[in-house]
Amino acid sequence: MAKQKEKPAMLDRYRVLDLTDDRGAFCGKIMAELGADVVKVERPGGDPSRNIGPFYKDIPDPEKSLSWFAFNQNKRGITLNIETKDGQEIFKRLARKADFVIESFKPGYLDKLGLGYAALSKINPKIILTSITPFGQAGPYSTYNSPDLVTMSMAGYALICGDSDRPPVRFSSDQSYYQSSLQATVGTLIAHYHREMSGEGQHVDVSMQESMIWTLCYAPHDWYLLHQIIHTREGAYWKRLGVTYRLIWPCKDGYVCYRLLMAQPGAEVMNDLIASMNKEGLGLSMKDISWTTLSFTEVPQEQINQWEVEIGKYFLRHTKRELHEEAIRQRNVLQPVNDAKDLYESPQLASRDFWVQIRHPELRASLTYPGPYFRSTETMWQKGKRAPLIGEHNDAIYGKELGLTKEQLAILKRENVI
User: Fold this and answer.
1) Whether pTM exceeds 0.70
2) How far apart are CA 370 and CA 368, in angstroms?
3) Which pLDDT value is given to residue 225?
4) What count of Cα atoms within 13 Å lies in the side-chain half-sphere of residue 114?
5) pLDDT one digit per residue (tens) for the chain, 418 residues
6) Residues 384-405, buried b or exposed e (16+ Cβ, 10 A)?
7) Long-range contacts made by residues 336-345, C-beta under 8 angstroms, separation at least 24?
8) Could you tell me the CATH superfamily of domain 247-342?
9) Given phi > 0 = left and psi -120 to 50 = alpha, else beta, which region is 331?
10) For the chain, what are the domain ranges?
11) For residues 89 and 69, what is the distance between their CA atoms, to the nearest angstrom?
12) 369-401 pLDDT, tens per residue?
């Protein structure tokens, strides 16, 4: 394998102009980590998403938002008011040499400014414009706004989140923003492959609602293929074919994931679990059960519930680590439900150098960030730099690249263009 320093980044020859807010910032972050020169274009004074907490050391400050740090790592940053005529002309100059533009404005907004795909493709036929919006560029809902809660609900995601005896709940972070950013990255790179083959750019249209529907896994499938079954939230349980069994179990220091195995390959490991329970005086009535031949459909729900009570007592006597190590010895399918501390201290992640330190000179500190999400033999993931400060690269891009003088920059700043 080539040495790390000899590997090029996948997108190191390409530039991205990032016009997204917090709904699409993750897309630009991924492309930056793949090596692209991602230029974050903020309004003068900074993007509103800089005010999203939590903040470094709990100090509310647009330069200390941990959310901003997380989703704008590796990018460069400029300020530009694209609603002004001068700002629009400057953006067009930047777009002439850019390879990608990503944005999350309301459909039609860029067109009104003369910066939509039709206009940009005239000055740069190879440009790829990726738009991330709640419901896409067309359809009866296309002009509707939508925070994460609305998008998750309208995608059906909220219905399957939470406990069955309570109303639907929202997942605790902006999943629709992250999922749509991931899909936007995939769509953008597919469009890039097409451009490499044909020389043609195109407009990539990403719907947050549609992106979230892809996360529902079996729910849509079971509706239109299996007797119109509507899956709802089941909390710590799993319900299939009329049988309910537990998936998430409390243990001594947290939770583990496990389910009864019956009439399937590998079900014999249930005997090992029961043997461990029997040593502690638990599950004695379960030791002679033929788990490899017994089917869920042959067992009353009351019997399954009784078995789960015994297994639950055993799990509560042991820690996640103890149960997981025992499961590994038995080749059983039990997993710890990791929290953030577990992940940070994971020997598996440490062995792969997953966590990386990024220096923040302005904070006089280094912060820990997640590292690469894949590895390849011929290209490298870009560890890079911390997120840009407000207008940090104005001089480098406007002065050195576009040739604007200090006097011109001063005028543009005074007129609220940059």
Assistant:
1) yes
2) 7
3) 58
4) 12
5) 444 457 889 999 999 999 999 999 999 999 999 999 999 999 999 999 999 999 999 999 999 999 999 999 999 999 999 999 999 999 999 999 999 999 999 999 999 999 999 999 999 999 999 999 999 999 999 999 999 999 999 988 888 888 888 999 888 889 999 999 999 999 999 999 999 999 999 999 999 999 998 888 766 566 555 566 677 778 898 887 678 899 999 999 999 999 998 888 888 999 999 999 999 999 999 988 999 888 888 889 999 999 999 999 999 999 999 999 999 999 999 999 999 999 999 999 999 999 999 999 999 999 999 998 888 999 888 878 999 999 999 999 999 999 999 999 999 999 999 9
6) bebbbebbbbbeebbeeeeebe
7) 336/254, 336/255, 336/256, 336/257, 337/248, 337/254, 337/255, 337/256, 337/257, 339/254, 344/368
8) formyl-coa transferase, domain 3 (3.30.1540.10)
9) left
10) 4-215+359-414, 247-342
11) 29
12) 999 888 899 988 887 899 999 999 999 999 999
Q: Which amino acid is at 207?
A: S
Which residue type is seen at 254? G
* CATH class label, 4-215+359-414: alpha beta
Q: Are 40 and 72 in contact (CB under 8 A)?
A: yes
**Phi-psi group of 53: left, alpha or beta (phi > 0 → left; psi -120 to 50 → alpha; rest → beta):** beta
139: left (phi over 0), alpha (psi -120 to 50) or beta: left
Asked if residues 245 and 304 have their Cβ atoms less than 8 Å apart, the reply is: yes
